[in-house]
Design a protein that fits this description.
294 residues; mainly alpha
């Protein structure tokens, strides 16, 4: 009788386990429905528009496509976009590392205020941030008369575009590093200082290796936003062809002039940069998940 009871338990336990697994898993039809809805959404709002950009750009052939980039105004817009990004990204890298290090490693008055200010560009419309610079440095702004007296031009010139780009992109590096450095704590830095390392040695040999992948991730996001920024740059640029137009502004002008092939051709450059950014982002995320080799 005991043997029969044990045999019955051995047959019912796997069945109960399988039933519990089935009870905690979603039905197959629900999983496939959700997956299909996600793929449909991505197809309609990501893949189709992206394909439409390249289709329109190549509608008149490869020759017309590359001719759009040979235009002097297009080349000037491309150069200005890369120039603004080349200044904004390193500036935000330095600020982001310094701010994250101060917030994560030290206690000081005004710490919460600094965190709030870092998040400010996320809460303020880029157009509003551009208007703030116009109010500060425009001809009728607070510093406008002084700038005119010293023959300095910020608004409707390259400095204004760089300032607007820096403003809308400066949270990205800091916001990637702050939670990472807070999670890592200060034990390794304190140990290095106890063993006689200087502040710079501690940073270069302890802190920086621990945050390198998060830092690179923040730089990639910062660069993508810098190259694609439209609202703030549009307000401070003045839309001067060949001088203050970035790639997004140049695309807008071409489209408004019904030069659709050239507009989509230049827009495809931004699309390619976005795809490269996504690839680099995925690579950094994959590398950050790899176990540390000792």
């Amino acid at each position: 009788m005991a043997a029969g009871f044990i045999s019955q338990l051995s047959t019912t336990e796997p069945a109960a386990g399988a039933a519990s697994i089935r009870a905690t898993r979603d039905p197959a039809w629900l999983r496939y429905t959700l997956l299909g809805a996600a793929l449909l959404f991505l197809g309609l709002f990501l893949v189709v528009p992206l394909a439409a950009v390249f289709t329109e750009a190549l509608r008149r052939g490869v020759g017309a496509y590359f001719a759009a980039f040979a235009d002097a105004d297009a080349l000037a817009a491309i150069k200005l976009t890369f120039l603004a990004a080349a200044i904004a990204v390193p500036s935000n890298l330095v600020f982001g590392v310094a701010a994250a290090w101060a917030i994560a490693k030290f206690q000081f008055p005004g710490k919460s205020v600094l965190i709030t200010l870092i998040d400010l560009p996320f809460a303020v419309s880029p157009v509003i941030s551009g208007l703030v610079y116009v109010l500060l440095f425009g001809a009728q702004g607070w510093f406008g008369p002084w700038l005119q007296a010293h023959d300095l031009k910020i608004i409707f010139a390259v400095p204004g575009i760089v300032l607007a780009t820096i403003f809308v992109t400066f949270p990205f590096v800091a916001r990637e590093l702050i939670p990472l450095m807070q999670a890592q704590g200060t034990d390794e830095e304190l140990a290095a200082l106890t063993l006689g390392a200087s502040g710079w040695q501690t940073f270069w040999r302890v802190t920086l290796p621990n945050i390198k992948w998060g830092l690179l991730y923040g730089v990639i996001l910062c660069n993508a936003r810098a190259m694609g920024e439209f609202g703030a740059v549009s307000v401070v640029s003045g839309h001067i062809r060949g001088e203050t137009n970035t790639i997004p502004l140049h695309v807008e002008i071409l489209y408004n002039e019904y030069n659709f092939v050239a507009a989509f051709a230049v827009a495809s450059l931004l699309a390619l940069l976005a795809l490269v950014t996504l690839g680099l982002k995925s690579l950094v995320e994959w590398r950050a998940r790899q176990p540390v080799r000792t």
